[in-house]
Structures are given as C-alpha cells and as structure tokens.
Write the structure tokens for this entry.
Amino acid sequence: MQLDFENQFLDGLSSIEAKKRLQKFGYNEIVVNKKKSKFKIFLSQFNDFIVWVLIAATVISGIMGEKADAITIIAIILLDAILGFIQEYRTEKSLEALKKLSAPTAKVMRDGKISIVNAGEVVIGDLIEVEAGDRVPADAIIIKSEAIKCDESILTGESVSVEKKSYNGKTALKENYLYMGCTVTNGKALAKVIATGMNTEMGKIANMLQSIDEMRTPLQERLDNLGQYLVYVCLIVCGIVTVTGVLRGENIYDMFLIGVSLAVAAIPEGLPAIVTVSLALGVQRMVRKNALVKKLPAVETLGCTNVICSDKTGTLTQNRMTVKKVVLYNKEIDITGDGYEFKGDFFINGIKKNIDSIMDSNLHKLLDACILCNNSYYILDRKKINFYGDPTEIALLVLAEKAKLSREKYKNTYKRIKEIPFDSDRKMMSVVVSDGKNKIMYTKGAVESIIKACSYIEINNKVVPLDLNYKRRIIEQNENMAKNALRVIAFAYKNNESNFIEKDLVFLGLVGMMDPPRREVLYSVQECRAAGIKPVMITGDHKLTAEAIAKEIQIINSNELVLTGDELDNLSDEKLVQNIDKIAVFARVRPEHKYRIVKAYKSKGYIVAMTGDGVNDAPAVKEADIGIAMGIQGTDVTKEAAAMILMDDNFSTIVEAVREGRVIYDNIRKFIRYLLSCNIGEILTMFLATILKLPVPLIPIQILLVNLATDGLPAMALSLEGAENDVMFRKPRNRKESIFSEGLLFKILNRGALIGICTILSFVYTLVKYDSDIVLARTVALSTLIMSQLFHVFECRSERQSIFNLGIFTNVYLVWAVLTSFVMLIIVVYIPMFQTIFKTKSLNLWQWIIVFICSGLISIISSIINYKRG
Ligand code: ATP
C-alpha cells in the first residue's frame, strides 16, 4: 500500500474530507450480513406450481362470472402468503441478533488537532492516536510509536502482548499494523487507518461468525423426500376425486377447481418452511443463551448427544484464579483474599504474619518470578482496575501486590531480553530479564516439567543440588495442594549465563491457586446424567487437581477413573475404546490426545460434543459430532472448525444447547403430526364422499378456508411450544431414528382417518336429517373438519402427557391462534356477506352439538386408542 509520507505528521484529514469519505465508504462498524429483502421473501411465497395453477383457475372463474369466489380465493392465497412471509421474515430477523459489537470512541487527527470522535466515524486515511489502555478503532499502519505493545487475543487467542513497530516506508510487516478491537497494553502510537468496518480483520471474523452455515439438515432432507412423495399421493387422490366427480355428471370446471384446491390444501407445502423456522427460532433462542450455532445440522445432532467432553479451566471453572498457598521448601504460607482483590493476609501454621517478617531471599525471588515471568497486566481506569491476560498469571501479579511488590516498579528496573512462551505441550514458560548489570532467567510451569528442568534447589538462601529426597518432598507438597483442588505452578531460576536454556535450573517453590467451579455447573452435570449424557472433563491440569474439582461438580463418581495423558500414551486404541466408559476425567493431556479421545467415543457409536480453544484443539473439534469453540478464549482456527461457539465459554451453555436441540426436535415432530393428520383428514373427507357416491362435501373456497384456519396459525404456534418437563429426563435419541418413530406414524394415520370419517358422518347425518339441504350439510362438515383440527392441535402438544397435565393455557400463542381460527369460522357461518361468499348457513344449537360430538368424538376415540397403545 502507498502512504504519503510527506503529509503523515501534518494534519490528518480535514473534517470535510472525512465526511466525504464517510459517505463514500460508510461507517466503521461491524454490520450484519446482507438480508434478503422483504419483497423477495414475500415473492418467494408464491414459488409453488400448484398455487399458480389455483391462481390461474381462479382468475378464469372470475372472468367467467364467479367474481366474489375469485376475489376470496385470491384473498385466502394472499393471507397464506402473508403467514409464510411472517415465518420467514422472523428467521431473517433472528440472524440480526448476532450483532453485538459496539463501537467505542477514537482519538483522531482532524484539521490539525486531535479530537475524540465516535469510532464509527473513523475513515480510511484518518490519523489515529492510541495509547496504553485504548482499544484500536480500525485497522491501521503505525507511523510513529513509542514502545507500543498490543493485546491481540481477540483476533489470535494468544494472551501474550505483541510488540509493534513503526512502518519504515518499505515492506509493511504484521508488526507494523494495529488491528481493530485489540487493546494497546503499552506505549503509544500514531497510525494511519487502512481499513474500516467489515473490511478490517475483526470484520472478517464477525462475518465468519455470522455466516451460519445453512446446509440442510438430515431431517430436512428426509422431509423434502417425504414431501415429494406426498405431493404425488395427493395429486393422485385429487385426480381420482376430480375424475369421479366428472364421471358422475358434475361440472368439469367445478371439479377441476375442487381438485386443485384440495391439492393446495392437502399438500403440506408449509412443512419444510415450518421446519426451517423451528430450526432458526431455535438457533435464535440458543444465541440468547450464548450458544452460537454455525452449522444448522448441529441443532439436530445436539439432541442426540451422548457424551460432552469439556475443558476444565474456564468452562467448568470460573477461570478467576486466586493464590491460596505458597510453599517453599521449609515454609508453607497460606494467603487469604478473594478473586483479584489486592487485599489479603499471610498465615504460617494458622498464625497471621506480617509479610516483611517472613520475606527472605527465597520468597523474594519467587515473587520476582511471579511478576517478571508473566505476560498479564492491569490498568487503572477511573478507580477500577482492569486486568488483561491469562488468569493464572493475573493471580500471580495479585499475589505479589499482596506482598507489597508492585509490577509498576519492576517495569522500570528490569528489561525483558528473551521469552520462551508457554505452550500446553511443554507446560512451562521462561523469560530472561536484565536489571542493567545481571541477567536472570525465570521459569514457571507444571511441577513435573519444572522438576525435570531443575538440578538445584534454593533452601534458606543457599543453592544445593536437587536430590531424590528433595524431589520426593516437592512432589508430596504438590500432591497435597492438588488434592485440595489447587492448581499448582512451580517456579525456578538461573543466574548470569550466556546460554539461557531450560536446563539446570534452581528450584524455588510452589504456588497453589484456587479456580472455583462455576456455580451453575453442578446442576448442569446432574442434568446431563438424568438426560443419559456422560459429561467428561479433559484438562491439562494435574490429575489430583482435576479429580478434586471433578468430585466437587460430580463429574466423576466412585466407579469412574481419571486417566492421565501419559497413561493414555501407553494404551492402544482398542484398549482405550474398551475402557472408555469407565473414564470420567482425562488429566495432564496434550491437545493431540483430544483427537484420540473423540475417535474412541465415536467408534463406540456415541455422538460426541467436544470443546476446544487453542489452535491444536482444532482437529479434535472438527472430528467431533459437535465441535464447540470458546467464544472468549478460542482462536479463529478453532472457531472455524467448530459447529457451535460458546459466547461465554460456559459448560452449562452446552447443556442448555442440548436441551434446546431436543425441544426443537420435539416441536418438529409435533407439527408434523398435526399437519399430516389434518391433511389426511381433508383428503379422506373428499375421497370418502367420492367412493360413497355422495355429493361434494366441501366446495373449493371452503377447502381453502380449512387450510388457512388450521395449517396456518395453529401449526406455527406449535413450533413455539416450550420444553416439556421431561426433555432432560429421556435418553438421547438415536441419530438414525425415523421422524415417525415411537408410534408417531400410527397416531397420524389413525387420527387422519378419524377426522375424515367423522366429517363425512356429520355431513351424511345433516343431509339425511335436513332433507338433503346441501348448503347446511356443507356448513356442518366444514365446521366439523375445522373444529376437529382445532381440538387435535392441543393433543399434538405432547406425545407423552395429556393436555391437562400440560395446562391448556401454557402455550398462549396456541390459544390465540385457535381462538382466531374459531372466530374466523363463526364469521363465515353467521355473517351474511361471508355466507354468500362461502356458501354457508347459520347453524342452530343442535347442529353445533352435532359438530362438537363429531369433532370431540374423534378426540375421545383417539385417546382411547392411544391410551390402549400406551
Ligand atoms: P484446560 O483445563 O482448559 O485444558 P489447563 O489450564 O488446565 O486448561 P493448560 O493450560 O495446558 O491446561 O495448563 C497445564 C498446566 O500448565 C497447568 O496445570 C499449569 O501447571 C501450567 N500452566 C498453565 N498456565 C501457565 C502459564 N501461563 N505459565 C506457566 N505454566 C502454566
């Protein structure tokens, strides 16, 4: 890119130019993906051949004189389209909920002076000024800087701050750029904006998060196939009804219109739409609960999950560490205090001590290491301290503050010369610092790793060789702390050497910190167990620490085991698979172990959810049936590989998502049951009339009314049904299970048949009783058909519980939907204007009793049949 170096320090942009650019390039904001326009969504509702046939037929009938009929049919089609539109529009809306990033302010050079503007108004070419504590408002290239460092964890997941340098006018390197959303941790800089809004690196990530993969789910695919099959069946039946009618001397045109209307009503064209809407609404509910589903099929798979493998730190625990104990060779110090508060007292053998009285060279060195071998930091912002970096390291800074040693003072005295960063394979990190005269290397890490790197130990300010006895003692001290759920970090150092490698170090001591479990996790673990899901902890932490926490949150019970990474290495894949059901905790594992663990569960046929944050976790996350990335701690790579992102890194959110997955599947079954049995009822009514040589029981406009009153609102309301009490008390569903399993097909068929038969019965009864008054008979049949569907929708609310257990009013949407449809029926039956259009007659009390007996009868017979089956 070309920068005009001559002008770079002058005025930045003029406010006029900035305004122009703002108009040209738009606001510096993270925006949601382009939406489908409302008009397009509406138009897509007519994307159906049969609807067009109906429209064409109606228009012809309108021209031929049946104007009122034609207008009503068109109105009904439009109303149907509006309902479809509402469903789809809500889906689009739900995606907007993903927008969560808010813009801070920015310091920009405008008209030659620094002014503070809304970060949204920053434009390309602006000169911005940032200093420690600021968030970078846009992607920019550094022109002038002083010791600038940035926390780019939001982009890279790496908590270590990166050093940045001014661009030298030649090749621009990564270290010359500042990225939007990152925080400046040190120094200051003047930089020129090169990208804003969605063109920034952050924008690209936001885009990725928003692009919910709209792959069709296996269930949707199966339903598509079923839908096609049903279309054929419906068309054949409609054909038979039409042809038979014509053969019996009915008007060809009337029969054709009946056939087409029946096809429109009976073909469950709304089914795929409702399934998609249910999935999308579910995704929206999950977002509200902090689970962002990236791949739609995951919603379905979630409901089948048998095993949830979760990281410990931050997911099961709070990741808010507090040092509770410092153990030197001959001294054990207990420390009080909560969270990251700088207040706390020191105790030895239960007696409170002044820190100065217990401070010796040994302890001092350990505290020096806490501060210097550390990449976290804090910034005082309006009397509040904001902490940045890895919580393990923050806890160490807080410990030093409690001992009156402040990081601020060390910053000026020591200069860091070298760092060997922490990685979860080595499980340690080192820094080399210089105070101008001497160089010292400080190392910290997991106890086993540190012991391996040490040859000496400092005791009473003397350095002596680290022999076996000493080592045993340290291991014992470590285990005692770990058993009490403390996470232990060991410290070591090395003096003045030319070659600073992690070898022959001097052992200093141990620090034990508490990372309390998240409060809600215990309940979620119990919920998992009740739901037949096995929760598994996977952690890099020590076996005993992991076990102690696992016991606290009941992830492990007395029959289950903890397996370490080393033990895992000695186990063949077959042996692992054989024993995997007994293991509840995997401790001291390396990221690559996770992949083997997922494989082992999968080979047993389990559906596995697996969390991950680091880059090395990506393969395991990808391999899992549900890969879950951490929203806060996770790296891009893991997020990309994942099917779901936990915005709050919380285990309980996974369980919530599983629960939601089950509810969605339940609801899909509910409205499939409803829609199909109703449609069978409609088709059968017409078909039975044909084979029984009866007059046509419903005219086209009435058929369409049934479709509108029942398939529309009530079906939609069913998709909003809340969770049933027992969703998390059932075993996970088998992924290969048919949507019609557990007798659903039988329920649909027998209910559909009963609706058809009862409607015909009411029709025949009225014909016989009222001297073949066809208008009245049709009104009774129409009312019976609609009422039986409105009764039936309540039965569809649960496959296991009766409506009286659930409470009639627990789904208010449904109550309103049913009332609306009922009022629609009353209007059509009683208001003269509609009577002429819909060819109906007012019903008297007795006729209503017939309607209710016939529609209610179905409910009773159906309950008896289902009761017997149950
Ligand atoms: P999880 O439970 O999510 O796997 P973890 O924190 O338990 O995370 P790692 O981060 O791999 O797992 O840490 C493993 C061990 O490495 C810890 O038990 C600790 O002894 C040590 N350790 C962790 N963080 C640091 C650090 N910043 N510097 C040095 N050692 C560390």
